[in-house]
Design brief:
Order of helices and strands: HEEEHHEEEEEEH
Oligomer: single chain
Number of strands: 9
Largest sheet: 7 strands, antiparallel
Strand order of the largest sheet: 3-9-8-7-6-5-4
CATH superfamily of the largest domain: START domain
Shape: globular
Helix content: 25-40%
Radius of gyration: 20 Å
CATH class of the largest domain: Alpha Beta
Distance between the termini: 73 Å
Strand content: 35-45%
CATH architecture of the largest domain: 2-Layer Sandwich
């Protein structure tokens, strides 16, 4: 393999696979072998699963999650986007971004999800909105998170999304009943 092909492959692997790359042997210009691990860090991945009870109807929770104006209100940080399949979105400025892969009004959201702060993605995010006596059970499954960032990512969802969303919708529900 000539140097330019090797360089193109190394750029491809570093840009598309980030820290998770295959252990492949390459040859450099002097035709000596080196192991791909010298360029790429291998990482185990984990799936994060969370269930949160939110005191609001599933449609209200779904709307609050998919409407960028509402996301901006409860996160107190800029969000943009359009909730249509293929539509792009951002949250927390440009820290979180991706696109909608599937939408089932009031019941399910599937997104390609990227996190600039941790430098990983895209990963798959699936949210299901289930009616329960207390309001909505929101079930989140976030797949392929690098192992070393999984705990912090899981904590971040609770601190930066679920708790503010619960507070926002609780206040909104209380105002409706007055």
């Amino acid at each position: 393999m000539n140097y330019y092909c090797w360089r193109a492959l190394s750029l491809l692997f570093t840009s598309n696979f980030g820290q998770r790359c295959l252990n492949i042997k390459f040859k450099n210009r002097s035709n000596t072998s080196f192991v791909g691990e010298s360029f790429f860090m291998q990482s185990k991945v984990r799936t994060i699963k969370q269930k949160v009870i939110i005191p609001a109807l599933p449609q209200e929770v779904y709307d609050a999650y998919t409407d960028p104006k509402t996301v901006t209100k409860y996160t107190r940080s800029k969000a943009t986007g359009k909730a249509v399949v293929g539509g792009k979105y951002t949250a927390y400025g440009d820290s979180i971004f991706g696109k909608y892969l599937a939408l089932e009004n009031g019941t399910r959201v599937v997104q390609e999800w990227n996190n600039n702060d941790y430098g990983y993605g895209p990963v798959r995010l699936e949210l299901c909105f289930n009616k329960v006596p207390e309001g909505t059970e929101l079930v989140m499954v976030l797949s392929d998170i690098p192992e070393e960032q999984a705990d912090e990512t899981a904590d971040g969802w609770i601190e930066y999304f679920w708790n503010p969303l619960k507070d926002y919708l609780s206040k909104k529900t209380k105002n409706k009943t007055k």
